[in-house]
TrEMBL record:
This is FHA domain-containing protein. It comes from Candidatus Electrothrix communis. Residues 29-79 form the FHA domain. Coiled coil: none annotated. Residues 101-162 are annotated as: Disordered. InterPro entries: FHA_dom, SMAD_FHA_dom_sf.
């Protein structure tokens, strides 16, 4: 099965890491105060457990698993396990705890996991050079006759035809 490369972005909206954006492509992310976590909160955030929560990839979806003592809110609701959607807001430990927005971006399949060869880009053939439009040959029309104009007034000439 060809699994697309999905990157997770965690955007810190509020808390000690406010303004930071973390991007990951791992299948399991750890959040907490422990130094081995992917996102490490400072020790001053005592309400956050050392290993507070995990985000696990399951196919093309991501599940938040709360492993903490003080809980995790997703969009304002206490959750133990929940599949995350783009734009979900996580609040760790307490209602005024650190606030993180969850986003995903999809890219081409990871070369390490994908066994499907990449296709070559096909370049269209260049168009032939443009030429000015050719006009068909004009039929040769003889020039009008060069008879001398009569010297008599036109009325006199017209009477000769009647």
């Amino acid at each position: 099965m060809n699994i697309p490369a999905i990157k997770i972005q965690l955007i810190h909206i509020d808390g000690p890491l406010k303004g930071k954006i973390h991007e990951f492509s791992e299948d399991v992310l750890l959040l907490g105060r422990h130094p081995e976590c992917h996102i490490v909160f400072p020790e001053t955030c005592a309400a956050i457990s050392r290993k507070h929560a995990e985000i696990r990839r399951e196919g093309n979806r991501f599940k938040l698993v709360d492993t903490s003592t003080n809980g995790t809110l997703v969009n304002g609701k206490q959750q133990k396990e929940v599949f995350l959607k783009n734009g979900d807001v996580l609040i760790l430990a307490e209602k005024n705890g650190p606030k993180v927005s969850f986003l995903t971006t999809t890219g081409p399949a990871d070369d390490k996991k994908s066994k499907v060869p990449r296709q070559k880009k096909i370049q269209p053939e260049p168009l032939p050079a443009m030429r000015p439009a050719q006009t068909p040959e004009q039929p040769i029309v003889p020039p009008p006759s060069r008879r001398p104009l009569p010297k008599e007034p036109l009325a006199t000439v017209a009477k000769s035809f009647v």
